[in-house]
Amino acid sequence: MRNQFTVKDAMKPTAIPLLALLITSTFSGCTSLGKGMAEAFLEKQASADTRLCEIWGRPFNGISPFLNNKNGKMKVLMIHGVGNHLPGYATQFSEKLAKELDLPVISRQYKTITLTHRLDNSKNLGNLRITRLLSKDRSRELLFYELTWSAITAAQKEVLAYDNSGEYSFRRAEVNDLMKKFSNDTGPDPIIYLGDSREDILVSFAQAFCWMTKSTWKDLPDDVSQACSFNDDSTAANILKDQYAFVSHSLGSRITIDGMQRIATLLDKRDVGFRNALKNKEIPIYMMSNQLPMLQLGRKMPEVSNQNAAYCKPEGEKYDQRMLAKTPIIAFSDPNDLLSYAIPHGFVEKYLDSRLCIDVTNININVATIFDAFGLGKLANPMDAHIGYDTDDRVVALIAKGIGNTNTAKIVKDRCSWVETID
Questions:
Q1: What distance in Å separates the CA atoms of residue 261 and residue 231, rounded to the nearest whole number?
Q2: What is the pLDDT of residues 188-210, one digit of tens each?
Q3: What angle do helix axes 91-100 and 393-401 make, rounded to 10 degrees?
Q4: Domain encompassing residue 263
Q5: 73 and 14 in one domain?
Q6: Rounded Cα gap, residues 106 and 133, in angstroms
Q7: Is the pLDDT of residue 231 over 50?
Q8: Given CB 3.0 to 4.6 Å as the disulfide criterion, which of 123, 146, 150, 291 pairs with 117?
C-alpha cells in the first residue's frame, strides 16, 4: 500500500514525527504501516499529556480579581508579533479567556478604529478592534483591545513578494516552499522595526493605549479613522480607577516595553496628573514566545539602567521619577520554540529601563506536543511551539487567574509546578 502524505498533512503539529515514522516504515520494508497506523501511534502518545509547565517567580493574580472593580473597568490589550496579521487574529484567545473568566456575554458587534498620527492624519497606523465581555448578571466586565499593526510594515515587505511568485516558488519542494513563504512573511519585521518604521509602530502602540485610557464602551467611537490624545482631563482620572494588562507575542513584547517607555518619556511637565496617575499603576505584561534577549542584540542600552532600587523602592532617591509603580513580566517560553528565550538573571537590571520597575516570572512550558518517533529521538514541531501559546489552556488559565492565590485554576494546580522566589 502506498503511503498517502500530502503538503496539507505537513502543516499539522504531528507532521515532523509523522514524516519520521513514514520514512522508518519505508526503509524497513513494512509498507503496511501507513498513515493511519502512524497517526494512531501518535494519538496514543498525545493522549497522556505530560507536557512541561514550570513556573519561577512571585505569586501573581491574573486578570480575574480586577473584573470586580466597581469604580472602573478591566482592560486588556493584545499586541501581535512578526508576520502579517488581519484584524480578528486574537478572537480564539479572547474567547478562551472569556470562558476561563466566566464571561459568557459578548457585545453584538465589536468596535473598530483605524489608528492614525495626531500630527499626520494621512498615516494608517493599523487597526484597533474592541470587544466587550460580560458576566451573565452584567456585574463583571472586560474590554478586550486587539492591536493590528501589520499595515505599517506591509509595503516594505513587498520587496520580497517576487520570491513568493510562481516564477520562483515552483522550483522549490512543496514543504520547503511553505517554509520559505513563512520566512519571507516573518523574517523582515524585526529588521524593519530597527529602521524608520519603528517610530510609527510605537506611535501605533501609543494610540492603542491612549484609546484604552478613554472612558466606557458606549463612549468609544466606531468605524472611524481618528487619532487619540492623552491631553484630556479624563485620562488621568480613568488611569487611576481602571486596571490594565498587556498580552504580547514575540516582537510585540519588545514593542510593548519600548512603547511604554516612549509614552512616559515624552510626557510634558504640564501633564503632571497623567504622569502621577501612571506612576502609581501596576500593569502586567504577559509575554508569549518571549524574545527580549534576542531583540536586545544590536540595540543601544536604555537611558536609565542598573538603578532599580533608586527608582522602585519607596526609600529610593529617585522614587518619584519612576514611570510605573510596577511592571510584572510573565514570560512564557517553550524550550522547543526556536525563537523564544527565558529572561536570564541580571537581564532586566542591565538591559531594561529601571523606571519601569520590572519584576519577572519565567514560565517554561511545552505548548507543542513532544513525540518519541520509534527510537529516532524525541521530536516537537517548532512551528507549533512558536504559535501555540494563545490556544494552550494552561497559558490562558495563568493569564486569567494567576498562580499562588486562592483563585488559581485547577488545570494550573494539577499540571504546573511552581517555585516561588523572594528577595
A1: 18
A2: 788 888 888 999 999 999 999 99
A3: 60
A4: 51-420
A5: no
A6: 5
A7: yes
A8: 123
Q: Are residues 342 and 240 in the same domain?
A: yes
Name 28's Cβ contacts closer than 8 Å, sequence gap at least 6.
none
Number of domains, the chain: 2
Least confident of 173-187, 225-239, 349-363: 173-187
Is residue 127 exposed (0-12), middle (13-18) or buried (19+ Cβ within 10 Å)?
buried
Query: Are 173 and 37 within one domain?
Result: no
Q: Would strands 243-249 and 285-288 be described as parallel, antiparallel, or unpaired?
A: parallel
Residues across the chain: 423
Distance CA 52, CA 223 (A): 43
Run of H or E residues at 57: strand 53-57
Burial of 145 (0-12, 13-18, 19+ CB in 10 A): buried
Judgement on whether residues 310 and 168 belong to the same structural domain of the protein = yes
The type of residue at 304 is V
Mean pLDDT of all residues in 94-115 = 96
pLDDT exceeds 60 at position 142 = yes
Residue that the C-alpha cell 523602592 belongs to: 313
Neighbouring CB atoms inside 10 A of 226's CB total 13
pLDDT digits (tens, 9 = 90+) for 20-54: 444 444 444 444 445 554 555 555 555 567 789 99
Q: What are phi and psi of 130, to 5 degrees?
A: -120, 130
Q: Are residues 290 and 306 in the same domain?
A: yes
* Residues in contact with 385: Cβ distance below 8 Å, sequence separation at least 6, in sequence order: 334, 336, 337, 338, 340, 366, 367, 368
Residue 264 CB coordination number (10 Å): 19
Residue with cell 479624563: 234
**Do 63 and 5 share a structural domain?**
no
Q: Which three cell numbers stand for residue 41?
A: 501511534
222-230: average pLDDT: 92
In a shared domain, residues 391 and 257: yes
**If we measure between CA atoms, which residue out of 313, 322, 344 comes closest to residue 331?**
344
Q: What angle do CA 210, 280, 360 make, to 5 degrees?
A: 90
